[in-house]
């Protein structure tokens, strides 16, 4: 639901993802989005770039948009990024808003993960426009206000090996989710509940996503 500031560390990869909400806000039907993209660069030495193309109307294979981010490691286990989301989407047939943001992420080194070299606790705070700030026409109509906080944040904690619990403030509402990656070479699965407050939307909704990245062999592996 919200971005982080992490990027790649010198290894190129491609990724695919599909996610959705059921029901979508102020409607009784589900809403799906699919994406495919690429990551490259080295955030430790220079910058990392991640870009993807989204299909915002999966049922009709239409309404494509573009998202990208650049990130840079600025300290021990700390990264900063700037990005844009859902550019060029058709605003007539979707409520997806073009959005720009900056974010800062940090992994707490004093709480080691079950997997060596990682942390159990990771958090991000950022500020953005569009989807992080502007409420929908229905929100305005039902007197939920016109603007959100613009500030977003997320926290992820590893409760079991390869299982994380996440809490997010999107700028418009609260989401709680859990993610599971059974193995390194398998997709990650996330399920959650969003719109847990009356700040926006008309009721809580179920959200899910499935995503997987395919790494290109590095020079050291060839």
Q: What value does the average pLDDT take?
A: 93
- Please state the second-level CATH architecture: Beta Barrel
User: pLDDT under 50 segments (min length 5)?
Assistant: none
Name the beta content range. Answer: over 45%
Please, what is the CATH homologous superfamily?
Answer: monomeric porin ompg
CATH topology: Porin
Please state the overall shape, judged from the principal axes of the Cα atoms.
Answer: globular
The Cα radius of gyration reads 17 Å
Using DSSP, what is the number of strands?
A: 12
Task: Sketch the topology as an H/E string, one letter per element.
Answer: EEEEEEEHEEEEE
Helical content stands at: under 10%
Main sheet attributes: strand count, strand direction, barrel closure? 12 strands, antiparallel, barrel
Total helices: the number is: 1
Tell me the strand order in the biggest sheet.
1-2-3-4-5-6-7-8-9-10-11-12
CATH class: Mainly Beta
User: How many separate domains make up the residues?
Assistant: 1
Ends distance: 36 Å
Structural class assignment:
mainly beta
Q: Your description of this structure?
A:
The protein is an all-beta fold. It has a single domain, classed as Beta Barrel (Porin). Helices cover 2% and strands 51% of the residues. The chain is built from 1 helix and 12 strands. It has one helix at 137-141; strands spanning 13-22, 31-41, 48-57, 62-75, 78-87, 99-107, 121-128, 151-160, 163-169, 174-180, 188-194, 205-215. A 12-stranded antiparallel beta barrel has the order 1-2-3-4-5-6-7-8-9-10-11-12. A hairpin with a 6-residue loop joins β2 and β3. The longest helix is centred in the middle third of the chain and has 5 residues, at 137-141. It is globular. The protein starts with 12 loop residues before the first strand and ends in a 7-residue tail after the last strand.
């Amino acid at each position: 639901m919200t971005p982080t500031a992490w990027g790649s560390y010198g290894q190129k990869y491609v990724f695919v993802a599909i996610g959705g909400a059921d029901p979508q806000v102020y409607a009784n039907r589900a809403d799906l989005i699919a994406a495919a993209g690429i990551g490259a660069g080295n955030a430790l030495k220079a910058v990392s770039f991640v870009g993807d193309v989204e299909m915002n109307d999966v049922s009709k294979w239409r309404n494509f948009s573009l998202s990208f981010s650049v990130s840079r490691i600025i300290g021990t286990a700390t990264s900063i990024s700037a990005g844009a989301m859902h550019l060029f989407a058709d605003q007539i047939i979707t409520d997806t808003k073009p959005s720009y943001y900056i974010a800062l992420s940090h992994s707490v080194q004093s709480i080691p993960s079950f997997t060596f070299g990682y942390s159990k606790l990771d958090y991000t705070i950022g500020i953005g426009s569009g989807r992080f700030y502007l409420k929908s026409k229905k929100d305005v109509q039902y007197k939920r206000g016109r603007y959100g906080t613009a500030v977003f944040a997320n926290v992820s904690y590893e409760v079991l090996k390869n299982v994380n619990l996440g809490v997010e403030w999107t700028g418009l509402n609260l989401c709680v989710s859990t993610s599971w990656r059974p193995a390194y070479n398998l997709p990650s699965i996330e399920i959650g509940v969003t719109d847990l407050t009356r700040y926006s939307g008309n009721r809580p909704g179920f959200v899910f996503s499935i995503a997987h990245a395919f790494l290109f062999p590095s020079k050291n592996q060839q």
